[in-house]
Design brief:
Elements (H helix, E strand, L loop, with lengths): L18 E2 L23 E7 L3 H10 L4 E13 L2 E5 L4 H14 L2 E2 L2 E4 L5 H7 L6 H15 L4 E5 L2 H4 L6 H21 L3 E6 L18 H4 L5 E5 L14 H13 L7 E6 L1 E11 L10 E4 L3 H7 L5 E3 L4 E13 L5 E12 L2 H13 L4 E5 L8 H9 L33 E9 L5 E7 L3 E8 L2 E2 L3 E5 L12 E4 L5 E6 L5 E5 L12 E2 L12 E4 L5 E6 L5 E5 L12 E4 L6 E9 L5 E7 L4 E5 L12 E2 L8 E9 L5 E7 L4 E5 L12 E4 L5 E12 L5 E9 L5 E9 L5 E2 L3 E2 L6 E2 L2 E2 L3 H4 L5
Parallel strand pairs: 2-3, 2-16, 3-5, 3-6, 6-7, 7-8, 8-9, 9-10, 10-16
Antiparallel strand pairs: 1-4, 3-4, 11-12, 11-15, 13-14, 14-15, 17-18, 18-19, 19-20, 19-21, 22-23, 23-24, 24-25, 26-27, 27-28, 28-29, 30-31, 31-32, 32-33, 34-35, 35-36, 36-37, 38-39, 39-40, 40-41, 40-42, 43-44
Helix pairs in contact: 1-2, 3-6, 4-6, 10-11
Length: 756
Amino acid sequence: MFAPVAARQPRTRMRTFLAAAVLVSSGAVAVHALPAAATNAAPDISGWAPYWTPNESLTDLKTHTNLFSEISPFGFSVTSPTTIAANGVWTASQMQSYKDAAAQSGARVIPTITDGLPPLAMAAMLADSGPQGQQAQHIQTILDFVVGNGFNGVDLDYESFAFSDGRASWATTSPAWINFLGNLSVQLHAAGKTLEVSVPPIYNSGQDSSSGFWVYNYAGMAPVVDRIKVMAYEYSGGSPGPGSPYSWDQTIIKATLGAGVAPSQFVLGLPAYGKDWVTSIDGSCPAGITPRLKSVTSKNAPGIAFAHGQVPAWDATRHERTFHYYESFSGNDSGGNFVRCNVYRTAWYMDAQGMSDRVALARASGLVGVAFWALSGEEPVAWDGITAATQGSSWAAPGYAVPPPAPVPPAALFSPGTPTSAVIQVPWTMRINTTGDTEQFATGTDQQIYHRYTVKGSYTGWAPLGGLPGGVAVNSSQVSWGLNNVGNPELFVTGVDGNVYHDYATPGLGTGWSGWSSLSQPAGGAASDVQVGRNNLGNQELYVVGRDGTVSHRYATPGSGPGWSDWNSLGAPAGTTVAFGVHAGRNYLDNQELYVVGTNGVMYHNFATPGKGSGWNGWDPMVPVAGVTPRGDLNVGLNFLGNQELYFVGSDNQVYHNYSTPGLGTGWSTFSPLGTPSNLTLDGSLYLEAFDYRLLNYQDLVVFGAAGSGRTSAATIHSTPGAGSGWSSWTQETRPFVATANSVTNDERLNAPPIP
């Protein structure tokens, strides 16, 4: 199946271009002849260095000098026949850094120029081919740009022909394009420079809707350009699906070689990114929330999946990864009415395994090289796979460990209902179960745990999961949820006897359960609320605070859920005991990190070292806020940079946050206030509703308190782009949110206790 011509979106439209009418200053680099390709020879590795991550792309070049043959700074644009504008980041100093790094590896510096003109303007400019015409002016401008700045050549990425001008213009544009390239190549080659083009793909030698982007005339380009970079991505366009399925890559290679492009000039352009689509929306979204298609990078896509309790799945046919999740949003619509929506999403992206497989395909096809769009978007482990593929070695990506359960708010699109005749005592906890349906849990006054789940969007009736053994009353303020090592839901609560209890689902629609059994209590005495995380072996790990004020943990061993280690103590911070917590996050090394507050009012953290969860750094204090002690709940999420962000309600009735900087969990910013909602006395409850460190960059925080006449109310605030420092103003809910006999009123999410 071929992608429709109109499906692919131009790469140059994916980012806003900030043009400056300047050129970088000159600085010569050596000219290197382009090598020929040979079947089973190691393909050249190159990539586009986007202007929004220049330092990260430079690090790629410096770190993998043994691989790179070429790098293309991206951020130059044609704005008139005589002007090539540079994005402000490409200063003389920055460009010299690239030249110096390239010289160390013998790589070529080939900047990419895009078409920044209005639709049809570039086509008209190239068609004006007289001696003093616009084409001649443009050629001289390019030559001056390349020679004057000491570049090895130039890469032209003129995508307006394909995506802005319309198919009706192609028959006229195509010969003007080839005439322009022929004239430009003569001038560049005379100066010892090379000419490359980046173009969308073709699928056959025809000129119809199944042929791809024939306007570029591959057969006409082949005799006059040095390299043709075929951009093999954006296959699925606006519909959920892979960005560059493996069979599509094979079709592109066959069609390109069939058009007369020599393997020695054919560079396969590969994505280091993916797309995250909206597949459906239930309910009505609040004002200001417009769910839309988003881009993800190969590097951050796994974190997005993990943040929603999902594991990216490998598609062995397309050689890409995919995952599904949903987000909930609530607030007021434009008319002031309280509304809520669930946004269901599907993501596909090229991971490290997919990159390695396609480099191997390029090698087997005898192509001279591959180029990645865009550098700095790849997973770090991808370079191991790329290296192996260039050498003809097989490689298997290490895969992803099952993530810890993420804080997901209750769906609340349907009538709350009640668990039989019991009064809801502990509000709801909700997750997506193994079949992808919403499953909800509540504790009744009869001391049983109840659940229900959706089937095709509608809830089943409430069904009891039974009470704890021996009639022990439930003591937890919440039902903690995890996924065991066979991928089934597992519930954890504490009883009034101080023991931890668990119950795990058996395969099916969530209706088969093991029954509640005891996981005992730690040596430190009766456990308070249990928190569940996942260690670096992919097994669940439980954390509790004992009666003696120390933290204890135990972790699951392989099996269907009943195998566990013994309880082990993590102790308490020096000179104090734990007042409340414990809350679990994951640091940038993907190790567990715990947070507690001591009886001395100081917050502490402790992070795991590699192993079975038994190696830990020890408790270190977080720098406190003068005159302020944490009270109530803590919470931890991931900000838009993928770093942990910590929150607490202070004794001064303000919300504070602090975010980590790279390192073994020990580098942090300082706690700073997010203020407090007006007319709301906070009770210390804090709930991180959702976190989204992709393009929306949202962390949505909900706090609870009293708002006149002792009513329980809530307020929300959300982050804006930045390292956790940009935030909206507080928006206060004005209606009460309380649990009443046999029902939960108004808003189930805001009734729910904080979910780890």
